[in-house]
Amino acid sequence: MAIVKLVLEIILVVFSVLLTLLILMHKGKGGGLSDMFGGGLTQNAGTSGVAEKNLNRWTVIIALLWVAIAIALGLMSKFNLV
After folding, report:
1. Where are the alpha helices (DSSP H) in 1-82?
2. Number of structural domains the chain divides into
3. How many other CB atoms are there within 10 angstroms of residue 15's CB atom?
């Protein structure tokens, strides 16, 4: 069971980095930190609608997997399965 926990922890770290990168790739909606750092200047050069939808899809999928793995690790720890 310790191997399963180790694998899940590694996957969680990889998903954390991937989720951070996916969130940073999203186009700024305006008025926030993205405009402060120059996001407002490239408003017209943003991604297409299809690319943005795919980015949203991948972000939601990775986020749901991240939450599921975090819950699984928490339950494994709570019930001393490792």
Report:
1. 2-25, 33-36, 49-78
2. 1
3. 19
Q: Which structural domain range is residue 37 located in?
A: 2-78
Distance CA 46, CA 28 (A): 9
pLDDT digits over 2-42, tens only? 999 999 999 999 999 999 999 999 877 765 555 666 655 55
Q: In this structure, what token pair is assigned to residue 8?
A: 């899940």
- Cα–Cα distance for residue pair 62/21, rounded to 1 Å: 11
Chain Cα centroid distance, residue 44: 25
DSSP 3-state assignment of 39? coil
pTM: 0.76
Write out the two tokens for 28: 């700024």
Q: Tokens for 44?
A: 């017209």
